[in-house]
Design goal:
Layout (H helix, E strand, L loop, with lengths): L3 E14 L5 H8 L19 H6 L2 H17 L7 E5 L5 H11 L8 H6 L4 H9 L6 E4 L5 H16 L3 E7 L7 H4 L5 E9 L6 E9 L13 H9 L6 H7 L8 E5 L4 E7 L3
Helix pairs in contact: 3-6
InterPro entries: Ketoacyl_synth_N, Thiolase-like
Protein name: Beta-ketoacyl synthase-like N-terminal domain-containing protein
Pfam families: Ketoacyl-synt_2
Length: 272
């Protein structure tokens, strides 16, 4: 298979986790700064109206918070962006709730919880809160969620010549699924991507190649928290790309991720 290369520019970044509330804080942790004394409980994205925010589940609030940060960082109108949202696990608390109710004698689901249970709930809250009428794809790929969403966003950015928002988010899994899925961390990360012809942003390329049983790159950060986050939260696999994007981190100007069982996607910073 001939290598296929895509190019775009990273113009904005957003991030949220229990021990960081923005991209600046996450970079500090990746560089070895100690964890804060007290972790955060959950984001409260101001862009969601108060009544809706109170009803929004954690995965939605994670996605919207980091998306809003990335849009502000890029200094663009959210309605100008085409969107890709990805969660490797979905909302397991709501899945657990619905299965329990439907297996009971009552079988009467909460309308609000049913409304929030769809996989594109985060995309819906985002587009409604920002009056966005552009396309919003919701992707899921479990352990390959990050690479699939990046591929989707970069293909659209280059082929359509449109700016993109791509958001990765996963919340801690419900108790009943912890033995299977293990994740206990909340995480969200967002990128605003511009077409390569733009004058703004850091240029990166993505190249698709054949590979046999590809593996995820090793995270350089030595923090036990970040290592646990990276290995257990499917969408936190984007941390390997985050390390590459850090301007001062010249050691990581290229990374390779698995895209499928037989293909990889390699990202590289394009020198100006």
């Amino acid at each position: 298979m001939n290598a296929k290369t895509l190019t775009c520019k990273v113009a904005g970044v957003g991030a949220w986790g229990a021990n960081f509330e923005n991209w600046h804080d996450l970079q500090a942790l990746l560089c070895g700064q100690p964890l804060p004394d007290k972790p955060q409980k959950g984001p409260k994205p101001a862009i969601i109206p108060a009544n809706e925010r109170r009803r929004a589940p954690l995965p939605v609030r994670l996605a919207v918070e980091s998306s809003w940060q990335a849009v502000q960082h890029a200094q663009v109108e959210p309605a100008s962006l085409t969107n890709v949202f990805v969660s490797g696990l979905g909302d397991t608390d709501l899945t657990d709730y619905m299965c329990k109710v439907l297996a009971s004698e009552n079988k009467e689901l909460s309308p609000t919880k049913f409304h929030n249970s769809v996989h594109n709930a985060a995309a819906g809250y985002w587009t409604i809160s920002t009056n966005t009428m552009t396309a919003a794809n919701s992707v899921a790929g479990y352990q390959e969620s990050v690479s699939l969403a990046l591929f989707e966003a970069m293909v659209q950015c280059e082929a359509e010549g449109v700016p993109m928002l791509v958001t990765f988010y996963d919340a801690p899994v419900s108790e009943v699924l912890k033995p299977l899925l293990e994740n206990t961390h909340a995480f969200a990360f967002s990128l605003v991507l511009f077409p390569s012809v733009s004058d703004h942003g850091m240029a990166i390329s993505a190249t698709i190649r054949e590979a046999i049983a590809p593996e995820w790159p090793t995270l350089s950060a030595q923090s036990d928290y970040l290592q646990s986050l990276y290995t257990s939260n499917p969408c936190a696999r984007v941390l390997s790309l985050a390390e590459m994007l850090m301007q001062q981190n010249a050691k990581h100007d290229a990374i390779t991720m698995p895209l499928s069982e037989q293909t990889t996607i390699s990202f590289e910073r394009v020198q100006p």
